[in-house]
Amino acid sequence: MVLVSVLALLQIAAPVQETPVTPTPPESEQTGLVDSLVIKAPPRGKSEGPVQPDLTLDAAEIEGTGASTVQELVALLEAEISTGEPDAPPPIYLANGRRISGFQEISGLPAQAIQRMDVLSPAAALSYGYRPNQRVVNFILRKRFASVAVEAEETGVTGGGRHAEHVDGDLFRLAGDERTTAGFDWRQESTLFEAERDIVRAPSATSPYGLVGNVAGSPFGSEIDPALSALAGGRVTLTRAPDLAADGAAPLSAFALGAGNPELTGVTANRSLLPSLGQGSFKAAITRDLARKVSVTLSVNLEDAQRTSDLGLPATSVKLPAGSPFSPFARDVTVYRYLDAPWSQRREVDAFKGQLAMAANGYVGDWRWSLTGNYDRNDSETVTGRGVDSSAWKAAIAARDPAVNPFGPVPRALLKANARDRAKSKSKAAKAELVLNGDVAEIPAGRISSTVKVGGERVKQTSDAVRAGAPTHSAYDRRVVSVQGDIDVPLASRSHAVLPALGELTASLNAGYDVQTYKDRLAFGAGLHWSPDKLLTFNLSVSQEETAPNANQIADPVVLTPSVTVFDFATGQSVTVSRLEGGNTSLMNDRRKVLRVGVNLRPTGREGGPTRLTLNANYVRTRIEDPISSFPLITPALEAAFPERFTRNADGALTAIDSRPLNFEAIDREELRGGINLTRFLGQNAKKGAIKKDRKQAGQVQLSVNYTWRLRDETTLRRGLAPLDLLNGASTSRRGQPKRELSFRLNAFKQGVGFNLNGNWRGGSVIDAGPTNGGALRFDDQTTINLSAFYEVPRAVKAGKASRWLAGTRVTLAADNLFYSRPIVKDAKGVTPQAYQADYLDPLGRTVRLTFRKSLIAM
Prior knowledge:
The protein is mainly beta. The chain is built from eleven helices and 49 strands.
């Protein structure tokens, strides 16, 4: 609070500072004539604050990536523009160094509209009123640009069973700092079923069901019939019902053929690995200058999506009494079967998202201000079938009704659909922030700059659910008023001849305070930014802050999903359970402390040379108290810490999991991240009399490699328990935590033809449940390679009457997971558990995409 007060006083004093500071004109005014002197404004689109870009891509390099739009470019460069931290928010996106109304405002921009792209360290976020846990990506746009583009894409899976269509269109116009964008998007994806993959289901006490039926002794595990055992040549506790049993009584010998080999595949044709999707969206934004001093943006974004999942067939067991016309057994037995009623276990999700947003940027004196605001509305409804009531059918079998065959088709009159579960959620969010940035004083080493943000937010969400006929209601209403301040003080400066041997050295302090409905939050931090040379930069920052759970984590409606296959480490078996999902009203804020140390080196200049090289390395240490986590996998340690989240039957078999989010005690992480970004231009020739090289006819090769080495990753589940070492056998995720990961990108481009090879390598990991619980699960390391190739017809193509239609047409052929890499998991016996089958962990496998894009561009 002391720092905030000091900052506030500095802001009040700022207007009366008598320093020889020349007011900075609006960014649309690059020069002005004052008293016969030309005063130059900062470079167009330059970001605020002392932090220099860690990575810069110019227009030629962006073209070489092969990305058609900003959204594609961001996806392609994900490893280079994100912090890589597990729970870090997405990057902050700017246009011409200014805050925007939201990423949707620029996501559809053609890549050709970008003049330069700067990627800055998280420390730069403070200059825009954000906390220092997100990278900043600044897109500097061309002054003049206009385009209309239509794109159609077809995606297929080489393994079959899944296809998708995608169509979108975008319009964009740029004139100075004025922008107009509009776009639509339609996407459709088909359902992928378990039967369309090599899913194998193993028999167990919790899932011995078959489509015709499986017969077991009563109780489960006891001998069915000594006569059947004699025919089979061994004790029989579970057998498959023969197909002929569906048409009438079958002899005992027919049941002997399936002894010990139950039929378990009936459900796979009716249970989806991936849901079907139909999604449409529309977005539009307009940016205008008012009197060449204030830039205002208004944007709208609408999206509607429907997803349908098939959750299998209703499973039931029925007692088949001895003496039934359909039983050849001397004893009462139990028939386990699926009922052919897929319609009764279907989940439909309808979600609507709408956003109205605005952003305004301008000047008050020599202070730059930014005002942003948005209103978001999200509505969703989930309807889940709960199977059927088969009590009438069971009663007829118990009564030995000769017209009701326990193995045959079930008469619809004997089945009654259970009431479906419904979950509705409605949320509204309104937010506004005002950010001021400018110089408060000048000292010998340079100007002291400051950023102050004040904002307000209200989030309101209501959820209503009906599960098993019981209604529930939850409501969440959070109000936040926040203030944040940052001050940057130059300590050394070569350009100002203050300790010139040190180069450029700046210290920063920041603090923030939120007044919330539930609990106030305090944040503060400090940093050092040092550039001993223009090619070398060091960043050091420390921060401490609290993060509140979002509305979904608290107020989402409770939804129950049946027949989920999980691995139970306590028994070493895969089991089928019911999983409960939704919000948790008892969640607390997390509290985190972060130390970041980074170095960025550009050993080769960026002034038109043929080679551009950037190297970076970052060390991050994080301590999180009361971290919020979705409930993970089922290890003995987790069950011991949260026994209330697990349900087991009298035999100890796991039957249900409550996977709603919760607070752990603490997380401690340390990691090193390093990267290299190299661009080499080939065959560029200097024009006569030109200073810069001509790159229009030149080729280029880009290489980017990013490496993560985790030094420490420990989670304490509850107070008093020993920390779990996630790098040495413990786990809170389904796949365990590898110590090392690597991502890479290799691009080659020349005159409209380009190739893109990118991929990821994930080191091996282990989940150790102990020798008494089946030993360990071992995950092999995995490398995934993606390849794409594209060709764009030159705009000056000469093809007669077809030139108009061919010019600017781009064709892209891409294959994701080119070599069909699959996760390989083995237990202590060298067997892959049912819940860790490759098709569960990666249902898609290799996908192939063919894209046609036609654009009309004017510059």
